[in-house]
């Protein structure tokens, strides 16, 4: 059987784009997924977004780890949101299984948050660290961010992979480390453009004041578009 055949992976579920409305007809929160390799700065990006946007938006977060609540506990320790707005999914397997193949646990977590603290404007769903093939099901999130970092090698954009080439936003993080690891930021920008065409790329350094602003500006644009899609 060819690997592209729909029955090649019988355990895998197929999800269409999620309905923008809740069962009662009200608009649900915009869901944005954040994926990327281990250590690229996904949790730090989520934390920075929460700090910057929490006074103007109603936000909640779902984190994914294989066997722990490590990322959720990081967010709780740093008090980026009230505890009832942060929940964790333990995937028990490779992270992409819970964000792409069988999203039921994440969907339940998102819906439970909306029931408990809603109405929400934004739900951030953070994947556990995964490789360059990690992508989110359209049944789980409305847009996805892929985070890489310069310390992982300035050839990552050139290597491509679905995370790099198809994410709605590519974030190249830890630019402050470029001089220390010999990363060519201009080369990374060229390679990302070659792989992604017109899809946006931003460079961030979260240790700098306002370092997450390129990502938060993009999130605000998505929220404005979401309001038009789901009035």
UniProtKB/TrEMBL annotation:
Major location (coarse): cytoplasm
Pfam name, any one: cobW
Location of this chain's protein in the cell: Cytoplasm
Protein keywords: Chaperone, Cytoplasm, GTP-binding, Nickel insertion, Nucleotide-binding
CDD domains registered for this protein in UniProt: UreG (cd05540)
Composition bias type Basic and acidic residues, residue spans: 1-10
Gene3D superfamilies associated with the record: P-loop containing nucleotide triphosphate hydrolases
Binding-site residues for GTP, renumbered to this chain: 36-43
Limits of the CobW/HypB/UreG nucleotide-binding domain: 32-202
GO MF term list: GTP binding; GTPase activity; nickel cation binding
One Gene Ontology cellular component: cytoplasm
Family to which this protein belongs: Belongs to the SIMIBI class G3E GTPase family. UreG subfamily.
Matches recorded under NCBIfam families: ureG (TIGR00101)
Summary of subunit composition and partner proteins: Homodimer. UreD, UreF and UreG form a complex that acts as a GTP-hydrolysis-dependent molecular chaperone, activating the urease apoprotein by helping to assemble the nickel containing metallocenter of UreC. The UreE protein probably delivers the nickel.
Role of this protein: Facilitates the functional incorporation of the urease nickel metallocenter. This process requires GTP hydrolysis, probably effectuated by UreG.
Name of this chain's protein: Urease accessory protein UreG
Gene name as annotated: ureG
